[in-house]
Amino acid sequence: MSADTAAIPRPPARTASTPVLTGAEAVVRSLDLLGVTDVFGLPGGAIMPVYDPLMDDESVRHILVRHEQGAGHAAEGYAAASGRVGVAIATSGPGATNLVTAIADAYMDSVPIVCITGQVFSTLMGTDAFQEADIVGITMPITKHSFLVKRAEDIPGAIAAAFEIAATGRPGPVLVDITKDAQQAEAPFVWPPKIDLPGYRPVTKAHGKQIQAAAQLIAEARKPVLYVGGGVIRAQASDELRTLAEATGAPVVTTLMARGAFPDSHAQHLGMPGMHGTVPAVLALQESDLIVALGARFDDRVTGKASLFAPHAKVVHVDIDPAEISKIRTADVPIVGDLKDVLVDLDAAYRVAAAETTADITEWWSFLDGLRDEFPLGYSQPTDGLMSPQYVIQRIGELTGPEGIYAAGVGQHQMWAAQFIKYERPNAWLNSGGAGTMGYSVPAAMGAKVAEPDRVVWAIDGDGCFQMTNQELATCAINNIPIKVAIINNSSLGMVRQWQTLFYDGRHSNTDLNTGHGTVRIPDFVKLAEAYGCLALRVEKEEDVDAAIKTALETNDRPVVIDFVVSADAMVWPMVPQGVSNSYVQYARDHSPAFAEQED
Ligand SMILES: Cc1cc2nc3c(=O)[nH]c(=O)nc-3n(C[C@H](O)[C@H](O)[C@H](O)COP(=O)(O)OP(=O)(O)OC[C@H]3O[C@@H](n4cnc5c(N)ncnc54)[C@H](O)[C@@H]3O)c2cc1C
Ligand SMILES: Cc1ncc(C[n+]2csc(CCOP(=O)(O)OP(=O)(O)O)c2C)c(N)n1
Fold first, then answer.
1. Where does the Thiamine pyrophosphate enzyme N-terminal TPP-binding domain start and stop, copy by copy (predicted)?
2. Per residue in 27-39, pLDDT tens?
């Protein structure tokens, strides 16, 4: 990611009618003027001045979380579900450091959030004052930009700029750290008429020559593939993508971050590429002669060993962040711009180029269709009598439908949720892809439900992840945020266990959680969820799965938690092991029970 720099904009000149507000009132007024309706936070000494006017503000709903990490992920879920900027508030020191994981997560996945933290008095900074932490310094590498505000008159400009930076260009987290004396002091409140940040000028409109060159390559390619990344969702450019895809007839793959950017039901869609991608999607990239990367960043989970990735492919790479282009794979045609515009321009240019030359891609499609027939996604039934986790997740998707929002934790259940739920629209699939943050799911689902109250929101979580942030169920129950939580309880840190099974001779070191199997059940998730004011159910047989999901779908007066007790031996297939060539997808064929069955 490019390091964007911007100083706090200078306060505009005051006039005779300029109101005088405390810095704390200025924070709240600024949020009002930005149209913010919901914030997630938890007060403490250094941010208490802000909490006082917040109490009376009628436009901003403050949701009191139980842990600041929850506020950060809730802000992320809010943003990822709605496209609007999410806001988290915390006090200095431990309050601010509790936000760090969520900030890092938002940075990796390009999520627009603004975190407002209280800081000790400016006169005490640097003295190891009570609850002092240099949060600007700590988060410098994981924010798009940070502001340290020490004067009340700078507050409106800093907050307005923070929102502008978070939401424009490559979205990301911005921190506004405000000293307590700045919150308490009075100053004229002057709202900046326009945000103009010297040094911050994201390029949105791409160069016409590059667009033409890309269109020409697409028209000439015999084995093209559109490698669609999370940038398409952040750009809200799914419709434009579909138009281009249908014009070219090229196959489409969607990364873990892009699930839903292109409908799963579309005939041109091959599914997710990468370590746990479908065989057709992995091989489409690997065997292609042209990769058109659209807001995708050639992550190692997708490329495998980068030097062996797609050896015959030319690359068109579109990204709003120039730092991403040619970072991993040299682009033959680099295009810097906003996909919302670039896709329209590319479509128009493609139609012109295709009128002259259109390569025949029939053979390419027969190869890919053959792979689709031969290697559909599948799973085998566990032999220990416990439920198949894939079945449970698939039924949640089928009974809820494509308008639902699904926020996953990290691990096996995350991969199965990416594979076995059908995504037909953007902003339906929320997860932690880049950082892989266990604990993301419940608070992110809470944030999503606040942003999109009319949609059904599921947290699909692992028994390990759930234990990291489930305290936010109290927040949901008290604030009438009726999310639904499916704990895919395999009684273990399943994804780590899977790697131990495959790469550490089956030595399962410290991955047994004792949450679901055998006589020990600590904690009992049903009792825990009931203690938090949720409707709680346990399901141990496949024949009871549908009824429990239906009960959850019908319950909207409180959160619902379902403890699905599933087999610990289920594996995520296909799997290309880390750091090898993707042509090694043969590995998946050899090791996947589903494939083995098909080959018999
Ligand atoms: C357990 C686990 C397993 C995983 N396995 C897989 C796997 O099998 N397959 C897989 O795909 N991933 C997998 N991942 C996720 C992986 O780690 C990466 O997070 C993911 O592949 C990155 O997705 P992306 O390339 O779409 O980029 P993103 O991280 O979504 O980045 C988006 C890009 O779009 C750009 N952008 C943003 N807005 C715009 C705009 N308006 N216009 C233009 N460009 C824009 C950004 O600058 C950025 O470069 C896994 C993660 C975990 C935790
Ligand atoms: C905060 C954090 N700690 C550790 C890890 C490493 N890790 C990745 S997946 C995983 C297991 C997750 O277990 P669970 O939530 O039960 O999900 P499952 O894999 O069993 O579906 C672990 C420990 C991580 N990603 N995040």
1. 22-136
2. 999 999 999 999 9
